[in-house]
Known about the structure:
Layout: H1 3-8, E1 21-30, H2 36-50, H3 54-57, E2 60-62, E3 68-72, H4 75-82, E4 87-97, H5 132-140, E5 157-158, H6 163-168, E6 177-178, E7 187-193, E8 213-219, H7 232-241, E9 252-257, E10 262-264, H8 265-282, E11 290-295, E12 299-300, H9 303-314, E13 318-322, E14 333-334, E15 342-347, E16 370-373
Parallel strand pairs: 7-9, 7-11, 8-9, 11-13, 13-15, 15-16
Antiparallel strand pairs: 1-3, 1-4, 2-3, 4-10, 5-6, 12-14
Helix pairs in contact: 2-4
Amino acid sequence: xxxxxxxxxxxAFTVYSECEYIDGSYIVxxxxxxxxxxxxxxxxxxxxxxxxxREDMEITSSSLLLPLIFxxxxxxxxxxxxxxxxVELVEQDQVVTIDMPLENPAEYPTDDIVYEDxxxxxxxESDCHDSDNDFKDMEEMNWYNLxxxxxxxxxxxxxxxxxxxxxIDNTHCIDGYFTPYxxxxxxxxxxxxxxxxxxxxxxxxxxxxHGRAIYGGFDVEPSNYGWDTSGHGTHCxxxxxxxxxxxxxxxxxxxxxxxxxxxxxxxxxxxxxxxxERHLSRVGQSGxxxxxxxxxxxxxxxxxxxxxxxxxxGKGITIVTASGNQGIDxxxxxxxxxxxxxxxxxxxxxxxxxxxxxxxxxxYGKSVHIxxxxxxxxxx
Length: 380
């Protein structure tokens, strides 16, 4: 299955985020041969230098993929740490924000959440960005004929109002149809974003029923259980795997919520680690084909975030990122500029637009690997 191309359409829709550093918050990457003993030694050095307790500094560590320390301490301590023999890099943490948060997000009941280890179902009665008529049109066109099986052959499906699906399946740009490579069954897509509205009707199974969008067990605000508070993550999930709006119409959509009203690079890394641990638990299960991580959020350049992405790709995870929509060189944004990921720029919605390198607001340059529709994309 052509996972990279199939899911690339998702990531042209991105979050705008200015480069904003978090005072007193740092990420430390240790060298590759670092052990847990070395990590503890560095933490002790930090404690001695600041004469503060570990609780005051809020130091945590992770060695799942890269040996990292996340801590709150002053600039002088950061400079000291950067000179230690076992330390590779020290960076000040950065804010990642979404430019369209709701002032009063909906209060979602926790008993409607779909967990990966429970057979809960969700309602499809919630509002979505599509109109009811849009869904009715698609149902009348027999999308539900895409049933079980990894390959749906060369069948064509009309795609009114969804030019993004029309463009990505052929080299002739717009022809009025979407001919998918596969239905995505057996693939887990981690929506590392602002959450997912599990109730949205676009997240049904093709043959009916509900529950393809589930909580992956990580939320920057744990009591929120991965619910979307801005609409951004839900929109991206719909483009990736919505039964009407999406490319991979039977993929599992898993909410890893790293952005609320604000997020941080350290939280993004922790969310990725959690998704990777879940991926490892899935390896060997019947019908499981692999994992994709969707990250349509970004911050200013961060070598540590980029290193983490590249390490995860090296472990077999497909990571697709948005290049950003600041109209600048994409090499200045992370994690899109990592290198081993698939970084996607945006083009417009006419036949002429889809033959252009990027749309006016899209980031550009050598760090952009592919372009996909990113203007007026209809989704959940």
